[in-house]
Amino acid sequence: MQIPKSFKLGKQTWGVAVVPRMRVHGRVYPAFYAMKVAANGRKPEKVSETFWHETTHAILYDMGDPRWNDEKFVTAFSKRLNQIINTAKL
Length: 90
Prior knowledge:
The chain is an alpha+beta fold. It has helices at about 45-65, 70-85, and strands at about 5-10, 10-20, 25-30, 35-40. Helix content is about 40%, strand content about 25%.
């Protein structure tokens, strides 16, 4: 999957940066409508999974859902979302 540079969510445009190195795999910055995804020599499937993980944080934040910062919920949801996106047959 090609990681987008930005996307529209609600009324905001979120910026996405794929960075060569981070201490964590990704991070969302809701106050700035931005996220970072670490490449770190990781497999494309893992980078995609991280993108959808951070996107799930962003979606929940946009919805005002208190689970936006619940790592267990976000991980469980985003892994399933990533699986659907990457296995869907057109």
